[in-house]
Design brief:
The chain is an alpha/beta fold. It has helices spanning 33-38, 46-51, 84-91, 109-119, 131-145, 169-182, 222-228, 239-242, 258-268, 283-289, 294-314, 365-374, 387-390; strands at residues 6-12, 71-75, 123-128, 148-152, 157-163, 191-198, 205-206, 211-214, 232-236, 250-251, 275-281, 319-324, 343-349, 357-361.
Length: 398
């Protein structure tokens, strides 16, 4: 039987499957992203069901598959957080014991003063704000004065919005790079996000040219371990940004939308490589979760499931698929924040046993430990390898 040569790890950004045991400590009251969207008439996911999504422990809705073709688990987050950066770092093997800083009252005056001095421009807003509402409320003043719109959210982020005719996109990116250098240490937010927009008031629109400038991971991840041994580490979507390029051998760029991301993966399947393709599909979170759009979220999952069908048809005997998430963002919950949830893990491939229920894993980092085992690379993490439980004819590698 062929060994596993290619792993496709797809993160469905924010597709949580029910409140974590400590959800209330994070301000969440029994969230369940998947349950909320599964109640929509727009939701139809036969491929995910066939792989075993609704067989995962704790999921008491949807159609359980009598003979699922994948193995599966419920996974708890061990890190202190519920954001994209910490979630992905944990998937890659780093457990964060401290949360990244957030600013529910806006950034302190000394931080704003340093940013304004470095930018050579005044700052508008400096509050937690909806990304679409902030350009509506401050866009005209920005156009009139050239001041930059700086805002945050419940996440550990500093976002800079600017109209493309006032601040060209590359100049906006440079402002973000400057902010990234400043926002370190105690103010080391997870991401500095460029938010270019276009149009005329009141019809401003954000463009797809968003770019994230992430905090560098505090330690090596499994991506570094793989890259050092010569394996491909290919990022699709926000992966390059989330890891600040660390451990990424090649990036296929930020996706226009989820379908663009899936198309990139399908094209990559025609290439011969040995290693990991790490994918983030952000529409679930960015376009629907934060905007509390249940039907839109459900339709996005339906679309992904159809595209997943094509991926499954094209898998090679030496391919392995993992599908998971990084946190929740229940579109039926109050507010607009992420939600502290357990996440699904589905594993499928010709080398993988069907129907193995791994139960509840204690950390996302189990994924990193298993990736290290698949490719026989040395990597230290608190995660535990589960490959021996699911791989057919498993034996210790030389």
């Amino acid at each position: 039987m062929e060994k596993i040569n290619r792993v496709f790890l797809i993160v469905l950004d924010s597709v949580g499957i029910g409140g974590a045991s400590d959800a209330k400590a994070f301000g969440d009251d029994n969230p369940n992203t998947l349950k909320s969207i599964a109640a929509s008439k727009k939701f139809r996911t036969p491929n995910l069901a066939r792989l075993g999504l609704f067989n995962i422990d704790g999921i008491d809705f949807g159609r359980r598959e009598e003979n699922p073709c994948g193995s599966f688990a419920r996974v708890r987050e061990a890190s202190v957080g519920k954001d994209t950066t910490i979630g992905h770092w944990e998937i890659a093997g780093i457990i964060s014991e401290r949360p990244l800083p957030t600013y529910p009252e806006g950034f302190p005056p000394d931080v704003i003063a340093e940013l304004e001095k470095s930018f050579g421009r005044k700052i508008l807003c400096n509050k937690p704000y909806s990304g679409t509402q902030v350009i509506h409320d401050f866009g005209r003043e920005h156009e009139a004065t050239g001041a930059l719109i700086v805002y945050t959210s419940a996440d550990s982020v500093l976002q800079i919005a600017a109209h493309e005719k006032i601040i060209p996109v590359e100049e906006l990116y440079n402002f973000c790079r400057t902010a990234r250098k400043i926002m370190q240490g105690v103010h080391g937010v997870g991401r500095i996000i460029a938010r270019p927009f276009v149009g005329e008031f009141p019809n401003y629109e954000r463009t797809p040219l968003r770019h994230d400038f992430s905090l560098t991971p505090p330690a090596d991840t499994v991506l570094d371990a793989l890259q050092k041994k010569g394996f491909a580490t290919i990022g699709v979507g926000k992966i390059q940004d989330i890891f600040a390029g660390q451990g990424i051998s090649r990036s296929l760029g930020v996706n226009v939308d989820n379908s663009d991301g899936m198309n990139k993966i399908l094209r990559l399947m025609d290439e011969d490589f040995r290693g990991l393709c790490f994918v983030n599909l952000v529409d679930f979170d960015m376009k629907f979760g934060h905007r509390r759009d249940v039907d839109g979220y459900a339709q996005a999952m339906t679309t992904f499931d159809a595209e997943l069908g094509e991926f499954l048809r094209r898998m090679r005997a030496d391919d392995l698929l993992m599908i998971t998430a990084d946190h929740g963002c229940d579109p039926a919950a109050k507010g607009t924040d992420h939600t502290r949830e357990n996440v699904p893990l589905i594993i499928h491939g010709a080398r993988i046993k069907a129907g193995v229920n791994l139960g509840t894993l204690s950390t996302f980092a189990d994924i990193a430990a298993t990736l290290a085992e698949i490719f026989n690379v040395s990597f230290e993490t608190h995660g535990r390898n589960f490959l021996n439980l699911i791989e057919m004819h498993w034996k210790a590698r030389p």
